[in-house]
Write a structure and sequence with these properties.
This protein has six helices and two strands. The protein has 227 residues and is mainly alpha-helical. The protein has one domain. Strands 1-2 form a two-stranded antiparallel ribbon. The longest helix is centred in the C-terminal third of the chain and has 36 residues. The N terminus is likely disordered.
């Protein structure tokens, strides 16, 4: 079975069906939560071990978003959700590189399914407008008719294009890479798929970075002084 194409219900939680994709998302979320809990369980003034690595990552992302978004208070407010985006997408992308994962029932890279990428994109979409209203109030709506009312249709199309482009870009790249690896696994076992999986390491990181940077830039634009 090709990645992203598992179907059927794995089990039920009462009347609620749970499919394979949801199970994989739970595993990814639980893994991130476990790392965060382990790193912050016994906080020390002088960080060591996992706490040190976790704090270094948080500081790096905070500094990165501060430079990207210009306004420090905006970066501080939105850095947690943007960092969560990055970690979830990165680990989801890399989950497909686990040897034999494509043949484990109930396991597939969440980002190889457009439902997941669309959900992430919609979170970004609403975050953009929450940031705009929180920074500018009702005046934020003025940008829809800037520089004139004639631009309203184009500005609305641009707003719709943001989540659509985020959805298609992430889904297309991850699903395409996983599909190619799956087919090559049958055609030329080990050698070619191994090379593609190596490329997948780079592609997975790039896609996580691109999605996060684009989300941050859209939020920064909505919260910026230009509105």
């Amino acid at each position: 079975m090709i990645f992203g194409m598992w179907d059927g219900v794995l089990f039920h939680l009462g009347p609620i069906p749970v499919d394979h994709l949801i199970v994989t998302e739970w595993v990814v979320i639980a893994f991130i939560g476990l790392i965060a809990m382990s790193a912050t369980k016994n906080m020390q003034i002088v960080p060591r071990g996992l706490q040190n690595g976790f704090e270094a990552m948080i500081l790096w992302t905070y500094d990165f978003f501060t430079q990207l978004m210009d306004e420090e208070h905006v970066a501080k407010k939105w850095a947690p959700i943007l960092t969560s985006f990055f970690l979830f997408i990165l680990i989801s992308n890399y989950s497909g590189l686990i040897p034999g994962a494509a043949h484990i029932q109930g396991f597939q890279p969440p980002t190889s399914n457009w439902n997941v990428t669309m959900t992430l994109a919609l979170i970004t979409f609403f975050s953009i407008h929450v940031a705009g209203f929180s920074e500018h109030g009702g005046h934020y709506l003025h940008h829809f008719v800037s520089p004139s009312w004639a631009m309203l249709p184009l500005n609305l199309v641009e707003e719709v294009a943001h989540p659509l482009s985020l959805t298609v870009r992430l889904f297309g790249n991850i699903f395409g890479e996983e599909t190619v690896v799956a087919y090559l696994l049958f055609m030329a076992p080990f050698l070619v798929p191994s090379a593609m999986m190596g490329l997948g390491l780079l592609l997975g990181a790039i896609q996580a970075i691109v999605f996060t940077i684009l989300s941050a830039s859209y939020i920064a634009a909505a919260a910026g002084a230009g509105h």
